[in-house]
Amino acid sequence: MEVVSADPSTPFLQVANQVLVAVGLTLSTACLAMRLYTKSLILRKFWWDDVCLIFAWTLSIGTQATILHGYTFGGIGRHFNELSPETVDTLLKVILAAAVIYIPCLAFAKLSLLMLYYSILNTSQEWVYSIYIIAFVISGYSLALALALIFACNPIQKGWDISIPPGVGSCINRPGVYLATAVSNTLSDVILILIPIRVVWGLQMRLIQKLGVVAMFCIGCLTIITSILRLATLWPLVTTSDVSYKLALASVFINIEANFIIICASLPYLRQLTRHHKPKCCIHHRSNRNVQAVRSLPSWVSPQDDTETV
C-alpha cells in the first residue's frame, strides 16, 4: 500500500488531526473511565446507557483510526488529481468505512443519553413515549443511512473500485447521503438538548438549582457546535471534485466531535465523584420546598447525597 505524504500547502491539518486524536482519545477515555467507576463502584447503577456509551467509544476509536489511515495511505489533504489509482481506491474505502463506523457511533451515544433521560424524566407517560419515539427515529435513520452508504452502488465494489468502467453498474447520490447524515445528526443533537429543559423548569426548585441542572444538560451544546461546524465543512464536498483535499478540514471536526460525545456524556458524573472523595468541596443546601423536586432528580444532579436525610 502506497504511503502518501502530506500536502506541502496544508501540512498543519494532518498534524492537527494527529494531535486531536491523541489528546481527544486520552481525555475521552479518562472521562469514560471516570463515569464507569462512578456508576459501577460509587452509585452501583451500571446500566444499558453505560453499555451504549462503551460501544460509542469503541466506534469512535475506529472512526479516528480510519481517518488517520486515510491521511497516511488515502491521500486525505492532497489534491485529487495528484493521487494514483491505488490511492484513490484507498481514499474511497476510507471515506465509506469512516462514515459507516461513525453513524452508529453517534447513534449509540445518543441512545445512551436517551436512556439517561428515561431514568430521570419518567414522570409522565408523555415523556416516556417521547423518548421512545426519538430513540426509534435515531435508530431508524442511522440504520437507513448506514445501509444506504454500504449498498450505494451496484455492484457494491463500484463505490471504491475506479477500475470499473463508468458504464457498468450505477450509484446513488452518495454526497447527498453524507450531507443527510450530518444534517440529521445536527437536528437530533438540538432535540436532545431541548427535551429535559421543559421538565426541569417545571420542577419546584430554586432558580439557581434549575439553572445548574439546565447548564449540566447544556454541556451537550458543545457537540451541537461541532456538528454545525462539521456540517459546514462537509457542504463543499457535495459539489467539489477535489474530495481528498476538502476532506482534510472536515476530518478535524469529525475527530473533535467523536471525542466530545464521549466527554460530554461522562462529565455530569464528575460532581458525584468529587462529592464521594472530597465531600468538603461540595456545599449542600436544604430547603423544604424543593425536597420533592430534589428527590426526583438523579443523585449526580441532586444537591444531597443518597444517604443524606432531607
From TrEMBL:
It comes from the Eukaryota. Signal peptide: none annotated. Residues 34-275 form the Rhodopsin domain. GO terms for cellular component: membrane. InterPro entries: Rhodopsin_dom_fungi (IPR049326), SAT4-like (IPR052337). It is a multi-pass membrane protein. Pfam families: Fung_rhodopsin. The chain crosses the membrane at residues 12-34, 46-71, 91-117, 129-157, 177-201, 213-235, 247-270. It is found in: Membrane. Keywords: Membrane, Transmembrane, Transmembrane helix. Belongs to the SAT4 family. This is Rhodopsin domain-containing protein.
